[in-house]
Amino acid sequence: MKRPWLTTSTGQRWSIVLSVVVSAAMVIALIGYWILQAAPRIQITQLDPNQIDYCYLDDCAPIDKLAGLELVTTPESYLVMVGEWGTSIQLRFVNRGRLEGTRELRLLLRSSEGAIIEGMRQEVMFLPKGPMLAEFFFTGFPEELQSGTLELGY
Fold first, then answer.
1. What's the whole-model pTM score?
2. What is the per-residue pLDDT for 127?
3. 54-153 architecture in CATH?
4. Structural domain boundaries of the chain?
5. Engineered SS bond to 136: which of 15, 18, 116, 120, CB 3.0-4.6 Å?
6. What is the C-alpha R_g of the chain?
């Protein structure tokens, strides 16, 4: 009767060689995953003050520039909270690209004629999971929001 191949010295050598090859292939696959998938999520491009794109909050499409970052517009596109010193506007986002890190976003309040009433900016922390909120503060009153339009700058 012939001995099983793993109990022979040749069989043991081949199993070690095979395990080294499989391990090397797995390390190469991990490095490839990191370069193609994980690294771009962590390296968020920062806002260029000379080249800001704006969209109206009521019809803001998913932002391709930020890996499909999507503004949640249902039931409303923003939440207004009145404080003692001004008004806060809270925006909710869905982080489709699972970005990680911080980036500046801007919010413009324009009058019905198109003049800028106030500009706000906020550094937003991107987390791969959970709700993503951006809160902007301006010194006006909620009545100004109803008569004007809000634009998100990214």
1. 0.69
2. 84
3. Beta Barrel (2.40)
4. 5-42, 54-153
5. 120
6. 26
